[in-house]
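Hello forum,

I keep getting stuck at the same step: I have a sequence, I want structure tokens, and every attempt I make locally crashes halfway through. Rather than fight my setup again tonight, could one of you with a working pipeline run this one for me? It's a single chain of 90 residues.
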Amino acid sequence: LVVGVAGMLLGGWVLSRHLLAPLREISEQVDQAAQSGETVALPVDRDDEIGRLARAFRQVQGRLDQWRERATSLERTMDRRVSGRRRAAC
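Reply #2:
Ran it on my machine without issues. Output:
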């Protein structure tokens, strides 16, 4: 019974340290990125599921940055065209 309880405590500690704590950290960083729009430092160097999750989020974040840049460029182009047509109409 004592060995079983000790094994459960050790397993809980390992689970918490190697899985739950990194997931909590990623979750907090993703929340911060969503609110601030900034890039966050994620544990992309890990070779486990946590690392895969971090790399996937980094890719999504990079694509989102590309779409933002494209939207900004399109907005500028449209503003120039509208300004040009307004001037031509006057």
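Residues 49-89 form the longest helix (41 residues). If your local run keeps crashing, start a new thread with the error log.
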